[in-house]
Amino acid sequence: MPAFTHAIGFDDLPFEREWRGDVRVVGTIYAQTTLHGVVSGKVRRDGRNSAAELTRLVDTCLFRPHLHLILLQGVALAGFNVVDAHKLSRDTGLPVMVVARREPDMERIRAALLDKVPGGKRKWRLIEKLGPMEELRSVYVQRVGLSIKDAGVALHHLTLTGNIPEPLRAAHLIAGGIGTGHSRGRA
């Protein structure tokens, strides 16, 4: 069992509600709680290219040989560009863990996808395929390619401040700083 000490965490930059186009995403590479690198790319607002773009960022990253895990700050980037976590895991050969501070209102997400988002039915199926969120170490997780025990080990090794793993916390802070000129609190 890997120690899950080397991970890349992704979050998207803030964007205006009316924005239709590409949204930058930031990935931070950590060895335990030490930042080793940053990558960035773009995904389409409410699109369907997030798994492909994250795969590209992971596979071209200088630290790729050392990575044990991919972390996502929620299951979607750039609004409702839902990440196909199973495809991302399969294409990179790495487990994927979705982390949320609070348990999402899945019925509200389902309704929004089915009523307001083009391709929402397909995107909802991707979320359903991940299964329910599981409470673990004061956060909620969904996972592909790792056990609940391994997910707990990863959270233990990668969390320093609060409950959010450092790769996600840093990606959130960097994304906010780039997007608005200053970073803001909670990831």
From TrEMBL:
Signal peptide: none
Top-level taxonomic group: Bacteria
InterPro entries in the record: Endo_dU
PANTHER family: UPF0215 PROTEIN MJ1150 (PTHR39518:SF2)
Name of the featured protein: DUF99 family protein
Species this chain originates from: Deinococcus psychrotolerans
Taxonomy of the source species: Bacteria, Thermotogati, Deinococcota, Deinococci, Deinococcales
